[in-house]
Amino acid sequence: MNLFYELSEDDRILAVCDGWDDFGRANNASKLGADVIGYPIWQFISGQDTRSYMNSIFFSCRSYARPLTALYRGDSPEMMRVYRMTVAPLPDLGLRLTHHLTAEMPHWHDPPVRRIPRALVQCSQCLSLQTPQAWAPGPGPAFRAKGEISYHVCPDCRQSLSRQIERTALSEVAASRPKGGGVLTA
Ligand SMILES: [Zn+2]
Predict the structure, then answer these.
(1) Would you say which domain of life the source belongs to (predicted)?
(2) If 154 and its partner were Cys, which of 30, 115, 135, 144 is the partner (CB 3.0–4.6 Å)?
(3) Is 171 a domain residue?
(4) Ligand 1 centroid vs 61 CA: distance in angstroms?
(5) DSSP conformation class of 83
(6) Is 50 a domain residue?
């Protein structure tokens, strides 16, 4: 199933797809279409780090007029879920964000939050947890009160996005290079 919504040039949510509210109700979402349309998307993204990550995607997509994709975990209390987000350019610098569920399976563990120290830094994209040594793959989401989790974007997720943006930029350079010129091979 694909869910999508569209943003204006100034990142306001202009429209959501049919089925958005049905999906939201089935997954205990706190925001339905009427609660988000007309508002800046930034109101619904937690943490400066995640907003910066998303802004990089939006900026690249608008600058090069090419779509970008990123995988992220969007678990429910019962299910682990992996989504693919595609951000595609629309006319007038608008964007369409499509979220496609690519994999899901039940959590196989006890709720992990009991084993995790109180102060929690978690990657908003892959749900890795920051430990004193490194970022460790998260066993699952931390279903806690919002104030107890600080959401960041881990280095792996940032690198993955950076590489994709670089490839987009390089292909743009290649496309704009005059045919037959520029590179001497002999
Ligand atoms: Zn991550």
Answers:
(1) Bacteria
(2) 135
(3) no
(4) 21
(5) E
(6) yes
Residues 15, 98 contacting (CB under 8 angstroms) = no
Q: Please tell me the pTM assigned to this model.
A: 0.83
* Crossing angle (nearest 10°) for helices 155-176 and 48-64: 10
Identify the residue whose tokens are 């678990």. Answer: 75
pLDDT tens-place string over residues 34-93: 899 999 999 999 899 999 999 999 999 999 999 999 999 988 777 888 999 999 999 999
In a domain, 114, yes or no: yes
Q: How far is the CA of 23 from the centre of ligand 1 (A)?
A: 25
What the block records as the tokens of 134 is: 């490194």
Which residue has 């049905």 as its token pair?
22
**Cα–ligand 1 centroid distance for 127 (angstroms):** 6
Q: Which domain holds residue 34?
A: 2-156
The CATH number covering residue 93 comes to: 3.30.450.20
Residues by chain with Cβ below 5 Å of ion ligand 1: 123, 125-126, 128, 154, 157
Q: Is residue 13 part of a domain?
A: yes
Instruction: Tell me the CA–centroid distance for residue 69 and ligand 1, in Å.
Output: 14
- How many domains does the chain fold into? 1
What distance in angstroms lies between residue 159's CA and the mean position of ligand 1's atoms? 9
